[in-house]
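Anyone up for a design puzzle?
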């Protein structure tokens, strides 16, 4: 008789995502799968060479950055970063956030800078030509136009998750951090390198976007506060969204998702763009605010 260990029971509960290949359009079938599952995996969305070029460009930004003001480590686990002005004023800038523990007592990096960066954010999509072109690639616009009446690019992040050092991202819903009335946030996450269960791929709770929004990260009189709206625990993030280089993963703003620390020998770089509906109200309590000189833009190129 076969012995059912806890691991085999867990694996039986795992959901295999129904991956699509990009064939030049966001079909009705793909839209339905997105709204049924709360996520959608589209392979071959960007060419490997486009991903390599964006990675090389990001590396050059890291090399150029003097890091003088950038010794602000970013931990998605404890939200300690929320206190730093460096973070809260980054909505209309390009800023560099470091992994936990990479700066020693004297302020020196313990590892080369390219390894130390956790992410770059949060307005790469408007302020940097290469990132703008990648964000506004024709296929990105095609997908956005199927999901929104008036899509607006609100936040972008180059996420490193480097080998042995890249930290965990705890389970969250993106509408916690970017909320509109009515809710509209969708994450466009692109694997710039293969993302596997070993190097920290995304995991999502299939259908979990039909659950309540649990929290809102709000600016209340100048203080960033994580407000609880509903204490229902998240369900199991049952789908491992492994993604070959060039794959787009769409994430509904309500779908709980997470990623593990990267304990492997291979890095897992990704680019994440968050899009909202331009006709929806964007409350001033959102942490991410942009100066009047940086109005939200759509997918049209300059
Ligand atoms: O890339 C990751 O590991 C997490 C990304 C994420 O949670 C997001 O883009 O909302």
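Challenge accepted. My sequence:
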């Amino acid at each position: 008789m076969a012995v059912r260990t806890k691991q085999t029971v867990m694996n039986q509960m795992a959901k295999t995502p129904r991956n699509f290949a990009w064939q030049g359009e966001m079909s009705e079938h793909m839209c339905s799968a997105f709204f049924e599952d709360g996520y959608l995996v589209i392979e071959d969305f960007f060419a490997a060479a486009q991903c390599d070029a964006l990675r090389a460009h990001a590396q050059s930004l890291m090399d150029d950055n003097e890091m003088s003001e950038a010794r602000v480590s970013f931990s998605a686990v404890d939200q300690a970063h929320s206190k730093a002005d460096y973070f809260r004023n980054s909505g209309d800038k390009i800023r560099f956030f470091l992994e936990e523990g990479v700066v020693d007592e004297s302020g020196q990096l313990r590892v080369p800078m390219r390894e130390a960066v956790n992410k770059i954010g949060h307005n790469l999509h408007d302020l940097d030509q290469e990132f703008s072109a990648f964000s506004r690639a024709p296929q990105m616009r095609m997908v956005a136009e199927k999901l929104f009446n008036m899509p607006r690019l609100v936040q972008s992040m180059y996420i490193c998750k480097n080998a042995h050092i890249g930290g965990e991202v705890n389970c969250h819903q993106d509408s916690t951090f970017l909320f509109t009335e009515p809710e509209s946030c969708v994450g466009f996450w692109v694997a710039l390198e293969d993302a596997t269960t070993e190097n920290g791929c995304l995991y999502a709770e299939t259908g979990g976007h039909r659950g309540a929004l649990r929290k809102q990260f709000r600016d209340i009189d100048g203080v960033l506060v994580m407000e609880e709206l509903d204490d229902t625990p998240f369900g199991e993030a049952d789908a491992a969204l492994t993604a070959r280089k060039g794959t787009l993963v769409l994430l509904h703003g309500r779908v709980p998702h997470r990623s593990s620390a990267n304990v492997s020998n291979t890095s897992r770089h990704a680019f994440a763009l968050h899009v909202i509906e331009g006709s929806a109200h964007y409350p001033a309590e959102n942490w991410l605010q942009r100066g009047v000189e940086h109005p939200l833009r759509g997918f049209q190129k300059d």
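A detail worth pointing out: Residues 48-64 form the longest helix (17 residues).
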